[in-house]
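Notebook entry, structure prediction.
Reason for the run: the old model in the group folder had no record of what sequence produced it. Starting over properly, with the input documented here first.
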Amino acid sequence: MQSSVKCGNCGAEVDVNLALKTELELEMKQKMAAARRDFDKEIETKRAEYKAHLDALNAKEKEFDAKFAAALNAKKTELENEIKAKLEGENLNIVNALKTELEAKSKQINELNLKTLEIEKLKREKSEFESALMAKTEAELSKRLNEEKERLGKALAEQNELKFKQKDEQLEAQNAANQSGFVGKGALSASTVKQALALPDDARVVLEGKIVSEFRPEHYQFVDKNGDAIEVEIDHKDWRGVTVDENTPVRIYGEVDKEFMKTSIDVKSIEIIK
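New structure, fully documented this time:
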């Protein structure tokens, strides 16, 4: 098959296949360029539609967010108001309960204060009564003790008077030739010196005990059987031959000698207890 022809104008050989190919390629290029322009135009249209749709979605999203935020704030405000009202109601109930409890406690405290005052009054009255009773009892006891002391003193004085009378009768018949004195010192014993100290001046006494020491000539310390001591004065002539030491139990007859600062016994006679 012949693939070339001569040009009627210039007589040149023209390749038919090449010419067809070139023409087809040109036609294809034109079609493809037209299709590309249509595609680009469609793409731009789609992009515009997508952008419009996206803007609409964004607008709707913003609107939804705004509505949601408003609804959320409204709900939040509503809940806050409900909680506030509930708390205020509960606080009011608590305050009222506390107020009622406080009033009850105040009433109890007032009653307790009144009872405390009554108790203090009763204690004061009891103390005053006990003090008055104690004073009355002490006065009565002191009176009775003084009466008993006076009675015992009189009885003792009468008893000693009788012993003195008997001793005086014995002394009148006794020979007082030998005269001796105290030879020892130190010991302790016990007796009724306290009774002698309670007697009046010049009261006659008879005491039993020991002469334990000598203060100075004719003045000695006498200790009775109870361990009570008293100063005794024994003139040299009144020993009448009796010799004792600090261990010798003796019985002395004498009189109470009361001075401003002390009380002693003026011994009239002494004898050894056998």
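Summary: The mean pLDDT is 81.
The old model has been moved to the deprecated folder.
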